[in-house]
Input
Amino acid sequence: MKRLSLAVLLSVSLMTPLAAYGHSHKTMSIKIANVLLPNRSPLITFRIVFMTGAAADPKGKEGVAALTAAMLSQGGTRTMSYEQIVEAMYPMATSFGSQIDKEMTVFSGTTHLDNLDKYYGLISQMLLDPGFRADDFARLRTDAINFLKVTLRETNDEELGKEYLYNIIYDGHPYEHHNTGTVSSLEKLTLDDVRAFYKANYTQPNMVLGLAGGYPKELPGKVEADFSKLPTGQTVRAKFETPKLAPGTRIALVKRETQATGISLGFPINVTRADKDWPALAVVASYFGQHRNSGSYLFQKLRGARGLNYGDYAYIEYFPRGMFLFTPDPNLARASQIFQIWIRPVAPENGHFAIRAALYEYDKLVQEGMSKETFEATRDFLTKYNNILTQTQDAQLGYALDSSYYHIPDYVTYMREQLAKLTLEDVNNAIRKHLKSDAMRVVIVTKDAEGLREAIINNRPSPITYNSPKPKEITDEDKLIEAYKINVKPEDVVIVPVEKVFE
Amino acid sequence: MRLIIILSLLICLPVMALAQQKSRKLFPYNYTIDDLPNGLRLITVPTDYPNLVALYIVVQTGSRNEVEPGKSGFAHFFEHMMFRGSDNYTADQREAIFKRAGAETNAYTSDDRTVYHATFSKEDLDEIMKMEADRFLRLKYALPEFQTESLAVKGEYDKNSANPFSKLYEVLRETAFKTHTYSHTTMGYLKDIQDMPNQFEYSQEFFRRFYRPEYSTVVLVGDVTRARALDLTKRYFGDWKRGDYVAKIPVEPKQTEPRKAHIDWPSPTLPIVAVAFRGPAYSDVDKDKIALDLLAQVAFGENSDLYQKLVLTEQKVDFLGPDFSNQMDPELFVVLARVKDVKDVDYVRDQIQATFKRYSTELIPQDKLNATRSRQRYSFAMAMDSSTAIASTLAPFVSLRRSPETIDKLAELMETISPQDVRDLAAKYFRDENRTIVTLAAKGKEAAQNDGKEVSN
Output
């Protein structure tokens, strides 16, 4: 129902039922899709996905999808309080967590085979028979508000900048607001909103059961039978378009009391794992800025050679909580992604230089592309690295679920095959086709927003000094960077007080 | 988010495997230990996970070893320098080899240890062992790289600085410890970080002192045999010369009265309360540490009475949890709470203190103790779900006792703990004169998460 009200920016279309991509079982009426990875491990991993998320929040009720997921995973059932659930899981050392994104909500947990019946009894009850209790609601809504107001705005400049960049790029799009919602909408949400969201979205056609480990072979059938209690719901799924941004660079300076200056920049791309150019772009992103990897180009130029900051990375997929993780969490699959550069906090006096350096390196990438040598090295890296990404059965299951979303085969096999076929020309064509943007969006979190704005709009030189001698190639390049022109109109460089972000 | 990391550390902390197992072996994998004549130890753990190998090199050096004034944060800074090249490999060549291998590689430093780790395909083991050995035996960097890297460390401090928990830990440690090196965090003081570019000679001295075989253990987990691991270790690390330096870690004198400190935070935040007591060091022989670990969960964990009261029922707190690491020397038993309203700070502090008092006189129920032991065993078993995870679980124990055996000894010790032990040890440690309380609130009045304990490259 709510998806239709979002129709301005999204077209509604029928999607192929996911069941076609899992090994599905028959139930009375509707198939619940599944992805099963049986093995001999004594650990059983559940990933129960509902194909709904923050993009399904009705207008004015931003945050209801996240709050509903929290009520299910951190709230009581009709017959058990949350305290009793925690008590029951305690000796098993298990939990049941939720993660929300635009189009996917996943509930996940792992149990030892010894405790499987008990654990499954608890989690099935949590999803199928929620208590929607007023005390849980009050607690979780306050947690959500404090997460935005305090944790994100005031304690983590890096995630603040990255998430605000998404807000700006998806302005007016169902992806616009933070997955947790907005402060003002959360303050108005009621328990009835949560009940309504649950009823409309926690349906059989929206569910995909992910199971891995040495579970008894009857388990998938049992889960399917139990979850056929869920409503049959609608089978129409929204399709989200990639936004077309107004041309030109736009810069938002988020002003807050902070010691350092953090920078994120990017623009939407028309490529997801479902597209043929994805492996090529994956190579580019890895070469340019593999997450937390000191061998990537940006890292070596900005941190390695200049000591500008702690790290510099590039992405073609949403990667929240990157400051705490070495590898991305799965089940954040989306129809629309952005290309993003993340410059970790720099000393404020180097803020202007760092923005220029990021744009300079980005322009250079687009103009020059990759060389044969860097292409081959990065292709070899990814071919092997993907095995490391999927080391645990939880990760294998997560990737398999994402592959079912994108309608691609097993991720590691698919990438190995695609990378083997890839040529330098494919990669450089993909750069020209997808990474050439005239609509760059930049978010800078800093204290002296006025001073930085003034320097940016007047294109003032931003020389950098070091505590040690630098090779000539670096000092020559610095001369180009410190005067690198940022083509931006004064009205497109705005100062945003931090209190307004996520409000 | 980092709080979640604190919590997960606690949940898997002193760790063990399954009750149902016939033997008490809680580290369920077969392993071998080989000692080289130079003092280097090799621990090999073959697993059924195919193709991959996790290589963890554990050096028993951390911010605990920073005994000279003005050198806080140096162990961590030095970890960064280990990536700047050696006699036979420039930094770029290192990166190229790791890249071709598709390796996941990094390092971290904590109070007691520095850990260099990489996971990669088994066919790359020889080349990577050779290259890793080169930096431990023949590290080489020039002054300009040293000075540039000091800026990256400053960048790391800067990125952490937005988080009030970083500052809270800095102040908590310097208030609770006056002599011992645990008085500073692993990251170090800003003034010392700013002085790092001037410490080039000291960095070479640091390498000579601590990057020695007798302080180091090579841990290899995965698709590897003992014979191959030993052959490569002997071949590439065999010429490493034993050192003779022993850091004199100052002993912290007895605390004689309660201490407190308050931090005025310059931007809006929810207030944070930390109530800490001086606790014991890690031991697999004495009951003190493991008994208080069990109590940490019972008294302050997610299903404790206090958590249910403050977080779920009264909803005055949005985070509550204990933090009590296994350390070489006596460590703080910390309880942290983030309070939703500044007017409740005193109340929350008093509730936490009352809980410490309560368990100093009251016996915990036997069934709760049993459930907590079960939890510890399952968390341990469930944490080890890949070769990397096994190696990463082993690393802290290797830094403490240089053998996985300590895990099994600890598990056996845990079985002997009675409710009386827990009460008596609570009474021994949770005395007013052992206490330090630190609060943090926005200047004038009113937060989230990083304990600043493990600092990675």
Observations:
- The CA atoms of residues 218 and 241 of chain A lie 40 Å apart.
- The two ends of chain A are 25 Å apart (CA to CA).
- The longest strand of chain A covers residues 337-346.
- The domain at 2-240 of chain A is CATH 3.30.830.10 (Cytochrome Bc1 Complex; Chain A, domain 1).
